[in-house]
Amino acid sequence: MEPLIKLSSITKTYHMGDVTVNALRGVDVSIDEGEFVAVMGASGSGKSSLMNVIGCLDVPDSGSYVLDGREIRGLRRSGLAELRNTKIGFVFQNFSLLARTTALENVELPMHYRHGPKVDYRAAAKSALVKVGLGQRMDHMPNQLSGGQQQRVAIARAIVNDPPLILADEPTGALDTHTSDEVMQLFIDLNKSGKTIVLVTHEPDIAAFAKRLIKMRDGEIISDEAIIK
Amino acid sequence: MRVSGLIKTAGKSILRNRVRSLLTMLGIIIGVASVIVMVGIGEGAQQQIRRQIEAMGTNILTIRPGPVPTRGGVRMPGLRRTLTLDDVERLRSIPDILAVSPVSRASGRVVGGSGNWQTTALGVTPDYLIVRDWELEDGVMFTEQEIRGAAKVAVIGRTVVKELFAGYDPVGASIRIGTMPIKIIGVLRERGENMGDDQDDVVLLPVTTVMQRMSGTRFVDQIMISAVSMEAIAEVQAEAEEVLRASHRLSPGVESDFNIRNQSDMMERATETSRTMTMLLGAIAGISLIVGGIGIMNIMLVSVTERTREIGIRMAVGAREGDILMQFLIESIVLSVVGGIIGAVMSLGLIWVMNDIVGLPSVLVPATMLMSLLFSGVVGVFFGFYPARKAARLNPIQALRFE
């Protein structure tokens, strides 16, 4: 079976003034559908750059990236936007919810940018919120919700368009241990229901929830192994 | 994103910053209101001029010496003298003419009664009262006989009465114009002002008296004709042209040495200036609309910066460049169009204030209202485009990380 994510010899270099940062220097990795992968590494290891490439937020300088059978090299910005909309659900460390916008409307957001047959936004958003256990707080604004609840809204938003891939960038970074465990349990449930999950973290405890661990340093993968529970 | 969703989003974000949105709109509100009011005042002035010319009588023809003045050219009255009393006599033969009177103008200081007064002396015939539709309040008009004899008699207007004969009956009294003693035989009924002219500030003298005793000329300044009806004007004008050409012995093809103008010509001429004025006022007001647009652009740029994270989030969940562009563009259009509508509504009130409180005649010109509303939409698009494009071109990664 074709892997969901196939990265071959990906490089990415950033120029910050005179300083050149080789964020990714030839990364090869394949992730199959249904996997739960944690990417670990210190700050500056290139894990965020890898996340940006996988998330179609950025394009590599060289190498090939095939996501769900589509080569992203050469895609224009609108093509990348469409992939982000239909193939990927993002969960960020800082929740990244629209302020002064209800949980329900936040979850509806990706559907507004979806082209194709019109669906009942409200119903789909409600069902996503129910799935993450927030059925009672749909009309709350983000500032009326706790950190854990906000992250659940973000997860509901990530799954509302039913993408095959969930990308989580330090999803528990702003949460306490107990809430972190609850959120991670949600990811485990999503993984069980068939979603591929790529989790970027620097916390070993959090990475331990995954089934496969990729470690990065200086823009390269230094280890890639299954986690034996 | 669907347009309805975009408008809803724009409305929400505008309502989120009520005070700021209102201040931003103020530029457009003032711009649209001032365009409508300014044009309304200009149009009001034009209509007033038109009414006043109509009040002078719609069946009047004015014949002046010299060829037809070119539009916008400088008129030099009396520079070429061609009209004579003989012409007046010939014009009388035209059917459908109600009255014909020559007008010979002289200005002079009138001395008499309680002091002296600078006024206009018009040398006319009794028909002049018919042409102008003026009436006598007291006394009599001079007769044809007095005209023939260049009698030293006068009929004066109310203003002259007020200035020289306050408190007593001037009929029978004597005045002097220059060194010539003149007997007052009549007083005109008050007419009031027309187009800034005090119509009562006048002394009517027999035309011969003015020509022979004052200016020493055998030419008249103008001839006024009133036709029996408005419908007869064209016919009378054509015949007058013919009569005068024959009288002046002009061979066919030679330019007339006189010009005949009817009321619509005069209206044209009189409203020309005020139309230019209207356009000027409208243009100045239009500039304020553009200034309002710059205000919108300014606020939209601030808004884009403030909402960089929001833009990043929207991009992350799949908003394309076009979606973001439309979102901000529609927001600026909504700002300017809502401002335009408020301005248009306000202009209704302002026009009422101009009319009923300030006393400046102004009218609502629906076309201007529509135009300025449309223009405010165009302003929204034009000045919203740059900020919207700036938002749409943000890098999603940088936008997401923006603090």
Largest sheet of chain B: 6 strands, mixed, barrel
Helix-strand pattern of chain A, N to C?
EEEHEEHEHHHEHEHEE
Chain-averaged pLDDT of chain A: 92
Q: What's the total number of strands of chain A?
A: 10
Helix share of residues of chain B? 55-70%
Q: What portion of the residues of chain B fall into strands of 2 or more residues?
A: 15-25%
Unreliable spans of chain B: none
Order of neighbouring strands in the sheet with most strands of chain B = 2-3-10-5-7-6
Annotation, overall tally of beta strands of chain B: 12
Q: Treating each run of at least 4 consecutive H or I residues as one helix, how many helices of chain B? A: 13
Which whole number gives the mean pLDDT of chain B?
87
Tell me what the structure shows.
The complex is a heterodimer of chains A (229) and B (403). Chain A has 229 residues and is α/β, with parallel strands linked by helices. Helix content of chain A is 32%, strand content 29%. Chain A contains seven helices and ten strands. Chain A has a six-stranded mixed beta sheet with strand order 6-7-8-3-9-10, sandwiched between helices. In chain A, strands 2-1-4-5 form a four-stranded antiparallel beta sheet, with helices on one face. In chain A, strand 1 and strand 2 (19-31) form a beta hairpin. The two termini of chain A are 26 Å apart. The model of chain A has no long low-confidence stretch (mean pLDDT 92). Chain B contains 13 helices and twelve strands. Chain B has helices at residues 3-16, 18-55, 85-91, 127-132, 144-148, 158-164, 207-215, 233-247, 263-306, 308-316, 321-358, 366-392, 396-401; strands at residues 60-65, 97-112, 115-124, 136-139, 153-156, 174-177, 180-188, 193-194, 197-198, 202-206, 222-227, 258-262. A six-stranded mixed β-barrel of chain B has the order 2-3-10-5-7-6. Chain B has a two-stranded antiparallel ribbon with strand order 8-9.
